[in-house]
Design a protein that fits this description.
By secondary structure, the protein is an alpha/beta fold. Helices cover about 40% and strands about 15% of the residues. Helix 1 runs antiparallel to helix 9.
């Protein structure tokens, strides 16, 4: 091949900005890293983050916690999930989602997806009725929003308790409503590869006061719930505080201090991600035989990664396609591999969940490739890697 190799790393994030570094240094110098270690009536960094993120998210309440996975599991517990209960969720997701269901004591029931990588609403209706499940933990996987109007009709018809995994949709919207505000709770991640970066961390939002009070006690607030930045009134905790166990999943002040300055730049960064996404999307869409998921007009997405399919590609070809891209510096992930590699896995490798027949999703995942688009890439970088993908795909496209 004559095309020049791509040399930028796909896991390199932008450096933490000076304002965040200064805030972290201040916390370190104080020695007060624990979120409840404050002087007099000051609000801790964690409490301030909760206050500021609730404002950004346009929700009443917010809890800063240890991870996005913890946010999901504690949300299910706070919503009343009982041991062994079924929880509907996407087939196309990452391991922390069924892991959170299992951690909360639930049993995942996977719902098929469409070729646009969103929940198959017909299958959701069918499985909601057949299973009698009370819960839907929807994963807005890789930032793809289903038709939320239709989804809410199904949720309401089946009296489902909706919890949204918004690890990839922080800042996204359906029409004028933020992702995470459609159901009982929204769960967000601040792990390094997400839209805010504290290495690890999570945020849980809701407008339901009793739900949030339980989540706060679960998170390990002891009896210090009044020291939270976006919490219900102390009266709501009167009984809940004695009935709810402590699962110790708090966020510390150091991580919160790093996140607060980043939140100020989130909207600007969403624009930057989408500029990069659209460059790659446009290039790939021009090639017959490469399928890029369609987006709804009502969806305001955050394009921090892009997915595409090569329909009809077999296992041997998929492995060779990945190898050819890798040789030219482009790191693709493939969701058709039944053996988990790094962060990438599918339902066949989650052996703690009973095996389920998901033929439609399996066919889609078998030809699905995934590409990170960090903000360390320039527009020219995105054009370059698009050319490599197109060049490497030529022999595998089925006409």
């Amino acid at each position: 091949m004559s095309i020049k190799a791509f040399t930028r790393p796909f896991t390199q994030q932008e450096p933490i900005n000076q304002e965040a570094i200064d805030a972290a240094t201040k916390v370190l110098k104080s020695g007060r890293l624990h979120r409840y270690n404050t002087i007099e009536n000051e609000l801790s960094e964690a409490a301030l983050l909760e206050e500021e993120y609730a404002t950004y998210q346009q929700s009443k309440y917010c809890l800063a916690c240890a991870s996005g996975g913890y946010a999901m599991s504690v949300a299910l517990k706070a919503a009343g999930l009982k041991l062994g209960e079924s929880v509907l969720t996407n087939t196309f997701t990452l391991a922390p989602v069924p892991g959170a269901i299992s951690n909360a004591g639930g049993n995942p029931i996977f719902v098929e997806i469409t070729k646009d990588l969103i929940l198959d609403l017909e299958d959701l209706s069918k499985k909601a009725e057949e299973s009698g499940a009370r819960f839907l933990l929807i994963s807005h996987m890789r930032g793809h929003l289903v038709d939320m109007d239709q989804l809410m009709e199904i949720v309401n018809e089946n009296n489902l308790i909706l919890i949204e995994d918004c690890a990839h949709t922080m800042g996204a919207q359906w029409k004028d409503q933020r992702s995470g505000n459609f159901g009982l709770a929204g769960c967000f991640s601040t792990q390094t590869y997400k839209h805010l970066n504290s290495g690890e961390g999570g945020l849980l939002t809701s407008n339901d006061e009793e739900f949030m009070a339980r989540a706060i006690i679960y998170s390990g607030s002891y009896m210090l719930y009044e020291m939270h930045g976006a919490a219900p009134s102390s009266k709501v905790f009167e009984d809940i505080r004695l009935e709810t166990p402590n699962y110790s999943g708090r966020m510390d002040n150091l991580r919160a201090s790093i996140l607060r300055p980043q939140l100020k730049n989130l909207e600007k960064n969403i624009t930057r991600w989408n500029e990069r996404y659209q460059v790659v999307e446009t290039a790939l869409k021009e090639i017959k035989g490469i399928e890029v998921p369609l987006r709804y007009e009502e969806e305001r997405y955050v394009g921090s990664s892009i997915q595409f399919r090569l329909p009809g590609i077999n296992v041997t070809e998929a492995e060779l396609f990945i190898k050819k891209n890798k040789e030219l510096g482009v790191e693709l992930k493939w969701f058709g591999n039944d053996d988990p590699i790094g962060f990438t896995s599918n339902h066949k490798s989650w052996k703690y969940v009973g095996r389920q027949q998901l033929n439609k999703s399996d066919e889609i995942l078998s030809s699905l490739f995934d590409l990170r688009l960090p903000l360390t890439f320039s527009i020219d970088d995105c054009m370059h890697l698009s050319k490599i993908i197109i060049e490497c795909s030529s022999e595998f496209i089925k006409h």
